[in-house]
Amino acid sequence: MPTLRQILFPYDFSAAGSAAIPYIRSIANRFHAKVTVLSIVPPEWVSPPGLIPQPLGSDPAALQDALRRQLDEIPLEGFEQPLARLTMVGDPALKIAEVTRDHGIDLVALPTHGHGLFRALLLGSVTAKVLHDVACPVWTAAHAEKQHAAITPRKILCALDGSEKNMALARWAFELSREFEANLQYLHVVRIVSDWLGLESEQALQEEMRTESRKRMEEMLRSGGLEAPLRVAVGEIVDAISEEARQESADLIVLGRGAAHETLGRLRTHAHGIIQRAPCPVISV
After folding, report:
1. Residue 193 in this model has a pLDDT that exceeds 80
2. What is the Cα–Cα distance from 140 to 155, expressed in whole angstroms?
3. Per-residue confidence (pLDDT) for residue 76, from 0 to 100
4. What's the DSSP call for residue 244?
5. pLDDT at position 180
6. Distances, alpha carbon 270 to alpha carbons 30, 161, 242, 246, 252, in Å
7. Is pLDDT of 92 > 50?
């Protein structure tokens, strides 16, 4: 059962960050979770004119204090639990990992591709570090301001990669869908085995692999008492998952990424690509 009692929301005052607020509020209120809004001043940050009064310049203490005042003015209404606001100075990815560890965070909500006060926070390299370094699930939305997924997910797509972590991931997604009263669909992607699928023999081999994968996945889900539709697609992982989510009008994708010390499975190595291409938010578990 997903336990989401403490949510960390790194916020950079960007359109992407603002667009993510309704999604985060929906998750927080559903799980009665407390949200900590985090703003970070990177060491190399220079104050842009207009938003932060001059002559604060790049003095970290002054900038941190200015950001704290800005956070107090953000219209964050509708949250059941009182919000905590936190400002820090340092490397964004390291600070997010530090707060996640020290504050017992259960979910990091990290919209990407923002263009706010500190762009470095939301660049792909930082997102990749956060996905690698934190142990808890990470909610991401690469195009939050453009996506039209339902604020409260009605359809959840869970991508399974055939690794030993599949059962735990499948159950996590199953329980999450029950919590949101959403429809759940499992998806497994089989790689294309040949560049010569026009040949009958190669087509037969591809279909054999697909059939075997379906049988294996169905047995796993059945053994765990997890009843939800399963689709087995053929193609490249990032493209297939993104396209399936688009065709099925998924509101949320759930996928696994493993811990930092583990050998990465196929989906885990593609997590960042899926986030960038997905038509809806993604939770990486």
Report:
1. no
2. 17
3. 82
4. H
5. 96
6. 29, 11, 12, 18, 17
7. yes
CATH of domain 6-141: 3.40.50.620
| Strand, helix or coil for residue 247 | helix
Class of domain 155-284: alpha beta
Rounded to two decimals, what is the model's pTM?
0.85
Residue 13, by phi and psi: left (phi above 0), alpha (psi -120 to 50) or beta?
left
pLDDT confidence band for 269 (50 / 70 / 90): low
DSSP code of residue 200: H
- Write the pLDDT tens digit of every residue in 128-154: 888 888 999 999 987 655 667 899 999
As a whole number of Å, the end-to-end CA separation of the chain is 12
Q: What pLDDT score was predicted for residue 139?
A: 95
Radius of gyration of the CA atoms of the chain, in A? 20
Residue whose entry in the numeric block shows the structure tokens 């790049």: 58
Domain(s) labelled CATH 3.40.50.620 in the chain stretch across 6-141, 155-284
Strands 282-284 and 138-141: antiparallel
Give me the mean pLDDT over the 5-21 stretch. Answer: 88
Residue with tokens 């990290």: 110
Alpha-carbon separation of residue 18 from 22, 24, 142, 148 (angstroms) = 8, 10, 13, 14
